[in-house]
Amino acid sequence: MTSTVSHGLGGTNILAVPSFLRVLFLTGCRVVGIKQFDTAKYYGASEATLASLNLRKIKVTSKWGVSLETDPKNPAAARWMGEFSADRLRSEVQSSTDMFHASVDLGFALHRPKDNFVDKHIEVLMRCKADGLVNRIGYSCDNADEVLQDSSWCDFVIMHHSLVDFFSKFQGQILVHGAFRAGLNHLELADVVLALPQSNEVTFLLGTRRPWRLLLGIRNVRAAATSFKSSS
Hints:
Blueprint: E1 4-10, H1 12-16, H2 22-31, E2 36-38, H3 46-52, E3 59-64, H4 86-99, E4 105-111, H5 119-130, E5 136-141, E6 156-160, E7 173-177, H6 186-194, E8 201-206, H7 211-231
Parallel strand pairs: 1-2, 1-8, 2-3, 3-4, 4-5, 5-6, 6-7, 7-8
Helix pairs in contact: 4-5, 6-7
């Protein structure tokens, strides 16, 4: 049974904040208890801004798989064979590792992969973890076409809330996005958690740069955790 229900911040929200306010925004997130951050190299300044705060004892999950020249919403599967070759992946992981303090629990994900395109990428990620370059590895998916047949190598999965049925037997951490954009209330968030009974932690990624919405999202996640405990 899921042991932890938590919240985190999606990295694109950092970019939605004016550059001169980004550090203040992230500092405020830490003050209100956010300890997990989702980011990516292709988000632009998101990862570097987060690293510049030199935060300690937080979870950071970075992603790789979409270039600045590729539409993140409609990337071609061929990206995995071309500009995002497996040969480049280790250096990308190393670059992210070098940015953050040693106390940061760093995870690295393949972003929106496709079966039969990423076998070598997975092998590289597994070696990176074995060599201590990164603590956790996994992948992210926005739709059913991006759900890999084999998730046994993953410590975590980042998924859209509509994909819960695909991960009912997944035992690692599941980071859920899109729930707040869809307007899910705390009872519906609790239902998402209930649909992921074997996950050791379900983390809802808050998708906003507005302080009042951020606080409302945190409240909803906490209420969902309470509802989940009472119904389980």
